[in-house]
Amino acid sequence: MTAHPPSSTSPQARFGAELRRLREEAGLSQQAVAVRLGCTQTQVSRLEQALRTPQREQAEILDKLFGLSEKGHFANLYRRMGSRPGAPGWFMGWVEEIEPNARVLRSWDPLLVPGLLQTEPYAREIFAREPRITPAEVEDRVQARLLRQQILDRDDAPSLLTLIDTGVLRRPVGDAALMRQQISFLLEVAQRSAVSIQLVDPACLPGLMGAFMIAELTNGPTTIHAESSAEGQVSTDPAVVTSVLDRYEAIRLWAYPEHVSLRMIKEVAQEWT
């Protein structure tokens, strides 16, 4: 079966085009780059044609080779590829442009622990259950999720106000040890001053419409993203934003106070023994 390159606007195609451009400007052969990357000339050729997915280490080597480590040029392109392989541009735009620049993030999830609060094993288990996914794709997605979570470690981390359906804590993702670790992590991260976690009563019907996030930006309009298994949406349209904000508030009315929520999380942790 013949491999076809992705769209010329995709991060993978841009990675290949940039590799070729910078290599030719530096007067380097594909073989010379292959030696640096620890691969074959044919593999470099396939990288340039976007017929091969680069490895994270290769992106870092290329940044060093072309003096781009400070900008992380190839590393950023790699991260865009891994943020959600095969995902539409709306999600990558959110991860790259909206979420990192948010002052406040509000989220609701009726089914799973939100991505920003998932442990590595929890995320890996979820991604591994995707239909027709390869082990390499699973690892790409896991690493991209961990990179995304780094915004919470910044000195200027956004305030994260999270609403989670109580049933999420009892939904088995992996084994009991994995769930204990995930719930313990929720209790740990909830101690941060910028993070608030509230559990929502499962009788909350307004929350059944699905997960979403709301980002308040310092220099930009409030933006929402909502997703489903088929498609997602990022919008700054005032009517859409108001609708999602109204739904968030309707869900919040069913939320337990934060101190009660944390006590409930501790109690559920004991159930995963």
From TrEMBL:
Location of the HTH cro/C1-type domain: 19-73
Pfam families: DUF5753, HTH_31
Organism domain of life: Bacteria
GO MF annotation: an example: DNA binding
InterPro entries named in the record: Cro/C1-type_HTH, DUF5753, Lambda_DNA-bd_dom_sf
PROSITE patterns (alphabetical): HTH_CROC1
Name of protein: Transcriptional regulator
Lineage: Bacteria, Bacillati, Actinomycetota, Actinomycetes, Streptosporangiales
